[in-house]
Amino acid sequence: MVSDTRLYGASIAFASGLYSLWSASTGTRMSAGAWAMLLLGLIVVVHGAALLTGYADRLGGASGPLMIGYAVLMLANQPLIAGGMLGADAMGSGSGMDGGMGGGMGGSQMTAAMGWDAGMVALALLMLASGLIMSRGSNMDATDGL
Fold first, then answer.
1. Is the per-residue pLDDT at 94 higher than 50?
2. For a pLDDT cut of 90, what percent of the chain falls above it?
3. Are residues 77 and 35 in contact, defined by beta-carbon separation less than 8 angstroms?
4. Can you give the pLDDT at residue 30?
5. What CA–CA distance (Å, rounded) separates 81 from 60?
6. Rounded distance, CA 32 to CA 24, Å?
7. What is the DSSP secondary structure assignment for residue 61, as one 8-state letter?
8. What is the reported pLDDT for 83?
9. Residue 142: how many CB atoms within 10 A of its CB?
10. List of E strands, 17-105
């Protein structure tokens, strides 16, 4: 039987991972941030599936810290997704006359104005809380396997 803690962790992993996959696929082009979200989404979904199987016993106490790490990466990636430092649009797509950041509405000014994805931030914070809860090994039932 899968414990409530595993079900909780898996549901958050599925929601966050699938949202990451969806948000990475909705862009018109794949920036560094979108590729990072795609990869992280896949990893998080696989981790969520593992929590529903006997493989979670092999993960032992690593699930909580992994969830914390995923949350930190999701939050750290927000500037990239929003057109920050390493996003292709933020570096200037060459659409201006001087190849710089000019270029009207299609360049980095529009991407940078979009801001952070509030849904992703909320899911990342929920995943962070889940990771912290899962990391409290001394208060957990031994059958949780987390």
1. no
2. 35
3. no
4. 81
5. 32
6. 10
7. G
8. 65
9. 6
10. none
